[in-house]
Amino acid sequence: MNNIRYKLLIMSGKGGVGKTTVSVNLAYSLAKKGFKTGLLDIDVHGPNVPKMLKLESEKLGGKGEKGIVPVQYNNLLKVVSMAFLLKKEDAVIWRGPMKHKLINQFVNDVEWGELDYLVVDFPPGTGDEAISISQLLKDITGSIIVSTPQQVSMIDAERAIGFSRKVDVPVVGIIENMAGELFGKGTMESFAKTKGVNYLGHLNLNREVVLSSDSGIPFVDNEDLDVTKSFKGITDKVIEFCKHNQSESED
Ligand SMILES: Nc1ncnc2c1ncn2[C@@H]1O[C@H](COP(=O)(O)OP(=O)(O)OP(=O)(O)O)[C@@H](O)[C@H]1O
Ligand SMILES: [Mg+2]
């Protein structure tokens, strides 16, 4: 496998809670801090990373010397997505073994080169892709669980934590996304406590986040947004976790 220091999985028990939003902004924040970073979108059925980075017309480079060449975002971030292999209107019907093969290629045949961080954007739930990636990626640093604040989301977050533990991937922590008057706030912080996992912070429900996804520019590029300020705190906690994790494994 390529030389990748920290591997982070962005997951959730259910769809539409903000995994791709977190993945894109986390990978971009790390890259802007000077870390060599890759972003792998393993959502075979609904790959949204290219849309959120305005890379929809890109295709994966042909085989380089060592394998498939990732698409570059702003000369900062290496991006690989299923969408780079498909036409926009293609519907994909893949069975588990095919998905496994494809994800294997994304992990082993891509010229990731030397990376400090690889951020992996998961599809919703804990299906084939989740199982494949946790088998194929060795030494995963941890999983980041994204959840919305509603009480009913706890059961989904719990499932994601359960999955992570089952496949021996440490939980980096939980992010409460879309916090505010509409969906509530603080549920995930207390939930994290009861589950004995870190709480990484919250992101408010904010129209700017939608506009940023739709325009293909990560919101962290706008320093004035409250979500950008919150996201900085989350990014720092993730970096801290990774450093700590490494020093533990070096002891
Ligand atoms: N904090 C937020 N405030 C407002 N809108 C948000 C926020 N976070 C995400 N969204 C919006 O919600 C929608 C779904 O987000 P996103 O695609 O990141 O979720 P996902 O968990 O990756 O979904 P899927 O399970 O389909 O992969 C997007 O339009 C995104 O812009
Ligand atoms: Mg997504």
Which labels suit this protein?
alpha/beta; binds adenosine-5'-triphosphate; eight-stranded mixed beta sheet; 251 residues; binds magnesium ion; two-stranded antiparallel ribbon; 10 strands; Rossmann fold
Structure write-up:
With 251 residues, the protein is of the alpha/beta class. It is built from eight helices and ten strands. The protein has a single domain (4-250), classed as P-loop containing nucleotide triphosphate hydrolases (Rossmann fold, 3-Layer(aba) Sandwich), CATH 3.40.50.300. The chain is 39% helix and 22% strand. Strands 5-6-2-7-1-8-9-10 form an eight-stranded mixed β-sheet, sandwiched between helices. Strands 3-4 form a two-stranded antiparallel sheet. Helix 5 links the parallel strand 8 (142-147) and strand 9. The model has no long low-confidence stretch (mean pLDDT 91). The chain binds adenosine-5'-triphosphate (ATP) and magnesium ion. Residues 12, 15-21, 43, 46, 48, 123-124, 177-178, 203, 205-206, 209-210, 213 line the site of adenosine-5'-triphosphate.
CATH topology: Rossmann fold
Shape: globular
| Biggest beta sheet summary | 8 strands, mixed
Integer tally of domains = 1
Bound molecules: adenosine-5'-triphosphate, magnesium ion
- Reading the helices and strands in chain order gives EHEHEEEEHEHEHEHEHH
Termini Cα gap: 23 Å
Largest sheet, spatial ordering of strands: 5-6-2-7-1-8-9-10
- Looking at this structure, what is the CATH superfamily? P-loop containing nucleotide triphosphate hydrolases
- Unreliable stretches: none
The overall strand count is: 10
Provide the CATH top-level class.
Alpha Beta
Give the overall pLDDT as a whole number. Answer: 91
The secondary structure category is alpha/beta
